[in-house]
Amino acid sequence: DVVVRTASAWAKYVSANPFAGDAKALPNKLHLYLSRDRLSSGAAKILEQRAQSGVRIHTAGGALWIDYGTSGVAGSKLTPALIDKACGSPATGRNWNSVLKVQAMIRARA
């Protein structure tokens, strides 16, 4: 599956970050997930049931946001298959550093 978004949609995701300005959110531990289809309304609640302590999950701007905290994604119980299922369709994730790099590439092409 391929997940594609327009430049204007990407800018909306960047501004919708529910953890923006949060000192606890480390850029390489905060992930934006975009699902192929419309995000399931119950995605965050499903994942919160499986998340370890310290993991924060929100939906904002039609996207799923997961702050994995200091433990990071490597040891998480939130597997790609579980995230896809919770989202209602295949999803792709990028950490905040990558999200900002994509935004910079989009701006450079404008």
Biggest sheet layout: 4 strands, antiparallel
Helix content: 25-40%
Q: Quote the beta fraction.
A: 15-25%
Total number of strands: 4
By secondary-structure content and strand pairing, the structural class works out as alpha+beta
| Alpha-carbon distance between the two ends | 27 Å
> Major sheet: order of its strands?
2-3-1-4
Overall shape: globular
The low-confidence runs, each spanning 5 or more residues with pLDDT under 50, are none
**How many DSSP helices?**
4
User: What number is the mean pLDDT?
Assistant: 94
The ordered string of helix (H) and strand (E) elements is: HEHEEHEH
CA gyration radius, whole angstroms: 13 Å
Features:
alpha+beta; 4 strands; 110 residues; four-stranded antiparallel beta sheet; 4 helices
Structure write-up:
With 110 residues, this protein is α+β, with helices and mostly antiparallel strands. It has 4 helices and 4 strands. It has a 4-stranded antiparallel beta sheet with strand order 2-3-1-4. Helix 1 runs antiparallel to helix 4 and helix 2 runs antiparallel to helix 3. The protein is globular. The mean pLDDT is 94.
